[in-house]
Design goal:
This protein has helices at 13-25, 42-54, 87-96, 116-122, 142-157, and strands spanning 3-8, 28-32, 73-81, 84-85, 102-109, 128-136. It has one domain (3-157): Flavodoxin domain (Rossmann fold, 3-Layer(aba) Sandwich), CATH 3.40.50.360. The chain contains 5 helices and 6 strands. By secondary structure, the chain is an alpha/beta fold. Strands 1, 2, 3, 4, 5 and 6 form a 6-stranded mixed β-sheet that branches.
């Protein structure tokens, strides 16, 4: 089974999780980057991120090479901005043409995921969401996050297994 982990990370938390997942699964890794790579303060990034979500702006991405048909399983990760998956991931999903795939989704955040995973799943119609996970402050909680990631990867590998603590229920199949 060929696997890929695709992610966007603004402060390193999603990158940490994605790199751990890819290493444990033996998956290809694709990090997305926006064309606007302005250096902003933490507060500036927060306000820019919230504004992007509220005005539903999808930022342009730097060119990337990704062929969904080459993969059996695609893991996609995003930071949570204003209780939604970060807009750069939304841009990727609108461009990548992912359909008919097994998908695992994860988000990372510093305060609250809200309904980000539910919103994330809705962005991938025509795919089978086999697992979802919410990682709170993974870099700050390094050891517990590594254990949570390892458990989640085992769940993905046997996607019929019970969800680990912290995982949200999967949306009903339509």
């Amino acid at each position: 089974m060929k696997k890929a982990v695709v992610f966007y990370s603004s402060e390193g938390n999603c990158a940490f999780v994605a790199e751990q997942i890819a290493a444990q699964m033996g998956a290809d890794l694709l990090q997305l980057h926006t064309r606007d790579d302005k250096k902003r303060s933490r507060v500036g990034r927060f306000f820019a991120a919230c504004a992007m979500v509220f005005i539903q702006r999808r930022p342009a991405l730097k060119p990337f090479a990704f062929e969904p048909s080459a993969y059996d399983l695609i893991v996609i990760g995003a930071p949570v901005w204003a209780y939604s998956p970060a807009p750069p991931i939304q841009t990727f999903l609108s461009q990548a043409g992912i359909a008919g795939k097994k998908i695992a989704l994860f988000v990372s955040h510093a305060g609250g995921g809200g309904r980000a995973l539910e919103k994330f799943g809705i962005m991938l119609p025509g795919n089978e969401i086999i697992a979802q996970m919410d990682f709170a402050n993974p870099i700050s909680n390094y050891e517990s996050a590594k254990r949570q990631i390892a458990e989640w990867v085992r769940t993905i590998a046997g996607h019929g297994a019970p969800r680990p603590a912290g995982a949200l229920p999967l949306p009903p199949k339509s």
